[in-house]
Design brief:
The protein is mainly β. The protein contains one helix and five strands; from the N terminus they run ββββαβ. The longest helix is centred in the last third of the chain and has 11 residues.
């Protein structure tokens, strides 16, 4: 059974210096993307489910520039054997 107490919501921002978690404004001025982070553990014996959705992209940011930042810093949350990671881009 799902326990709403086992949830976490937040925002991760990809900046020129790496990933920063900041859940409220003002957001980092050097951000290139903002991702909504939703973590849930549906049961005590289940794997965590982490859903990352890109909700903002810096206007005019070149795709190649964003790819370089992702290559350099990876994703906000790294996958591992204890959790399911889902990436989605809404913008």
């Amino acid at each position: 059974m799902h326990d709403p107490g086992n949830c976490d919501l937040g925002l991760y921002h990809l900046t020129s210096t790496g990933w920063v978690r900041k859940d409220s404004e003002p957001f980092p001025p050097n951000r290139y993307e903002t991702w909504l982070y939703e973590e849930e553990r549906p049961a005590s014996d289940a794997k965590d489910r982490i859903h990352l959705t890109r909700v903002w992209r810096k206007p005019g940011a070149a795709t190649v520039e964003l790819e370089k930042l992702h290559t350099r810093f990876g994703e906000a949350i790294l996958p591992d054997a204890d959790r399911h990671l889902i990436l989605d881009c809404s913008c």
